[in-house]
Structures are given as C-alpha cells and as structure tokens.
Amino acid sequence: MAITKDMIIAEVLREHEDLVPVFMNSGLHCLGCAMAHGESIEEACAVHGLDCDALVEALNDCLGAANA
Predict the structure, then answer these.
(1) Domain that residue 62 falls in
(2) Is residue 4 in some structural domain?
(3) Looking at the domain assignment, is residue 34 inside a domain?
(4) Phi, psi (5° rounding) for residue 40?
(5) How many CB atoms lie within 10 A of CB 6?
(6) Which SS3 state, helix, strand or coil, does residue 52 take?
(7) Looking at the domain assignment, is residue 1 inside a domain?
C-alpha cells in the first residue's frame, strides 16, 4: 500500500518501521512525540516547513526498494 500525505505518522511507522530513517533525514525527528500519534504527514510537514510531496515520494521510493 502506498503512503499518502493524509496518513497518520505513527500508523505508518507501525506498519513500516524501516521508514524511520526517511522521516529523520527529512527533518522530522520527533517521531515518538505525542503529536506523531495524531498528526498526518501533511500536518507535520506544514508545522516543520517541509515539502510534503517530496517526503511522500521518498517514503514510497523506500517502500518500493524494500519490496523489490
């Protein structure tokens, strides 16, 4: 299943722990904070001033490589 910007960060990480480095490298270092449990990828990117589309693409690229 592809990652979308409306997905909750904690839910994505429950399914795909291997994506932690992608989040960390993008600048989202607070994956264990309370906000990660109710905040979508898009909301977190807005708060941190990140390019959401680029992050979602990187996450899906990583998943594709992992499933190849």
Answers:
(1) 9-67
(2) no
(3) yes
(4) -75, 165
(5) 10
(6) helix
(7) no
Total domains in the fold of the chain: 1
Cβ distance 28 to 48 under 8 Å? Answer: yes
Q: CB of 15 within 8 A of CB of 31? A: no
5: DSSP letter: T
* Gap between the Cα atoms of 21 and 59, Å rounded: 10
CA 50, chain centre distance (Å): 11
pLDDT digits (tens, 9 = 90+) for 13-64: 999 999 999 999 998 887 777 777 889 999 999 999 999 999 999 999 999 8
Q: What pLDDT is recorded for position 66?
A: 61
* 45 within domain boundaries: yes
Residue recorded with tokens 């993008």: 26
| pLDDT confidence of residue 3 | 96
